[in-house]
């Protein structure tokens, strides 16, 4: 009985060892770490690259915004003189306690609020109406848009000087115009409400066109189909404005309200130049139009009390944060809830 025998191997061919060659082992053992490093670098590239792109902004923000903000808070906890900034006397929250008990601070806060309301409400209403007119097809619409932005491009110093001459008591054009109708001239600077009204006109003149262009950009993003549908339903121009335009630019209106509120809280240049000299820093002889910005300037650069000035600055910052939170709460309460 013949026994089976294994077939002879082909010439030149040898059976591979059970454990593989040394070269295969080396490539297998070294390939896994290499592949792991590549995967790690790939993940870092995907997740870390966006942070590296935005890192310059955060570095600049930390250097020029966050650090000054924190350092100002640190100064507000001390008694510091302008001439000796390196000498600090710890007061804790004593500066804040004194500020809350100071009648001048509450007067400045009230003046800031009234000037802000007098300037912001008419400004935004006029801007909304102007944007509605510019939204129509007009001849020379580009010229009118550029003209609307021209006051914003004018420096606050030049605008305040021109309006100061207009509201001048003895030779101002406004009093001359009132005299044409037999009315007596108004002492715009020495009276509280006339002074605040005059300062508000400067703010209105400078910022109405800017807000109008913001509204115009938002209006042009509204689909024309909505206006055509409203016209087919018989809606008038006024009804289209109320039912289509205003709801369509609601987010822009909220944005301008917040922006104007922050600007009104920080108003400084207009009342300073309107006072024409030392009275501008103190906001008039009786502080009748002194704002928080003027109070900060007076405390730091007239009375050399940098600790108090830093306290006023942080009070302004906290007021802006509070206004923002109230605005967000009001927006949530008034916005329609999704079903």
TrEMBL record:
Domain of life: Bacteria
Bilayer topology annotation: Multi-pass membrane protein
Keywords on record: Cell membrane, Membrane, Transmembrane, Transmembrane helix, Transport
Residue span, ABC transmembrane type-1 domain: 109-327
Ranges that cross the membrane: 53-75, 113-134, 146-167, 197-218, 247-268, 311-330
CDD domains named in the record: TM_PBP2
Family: Belongs to the binding-protein-dependent transport system permease family.
Protein name: Sugar ABC transporter permease
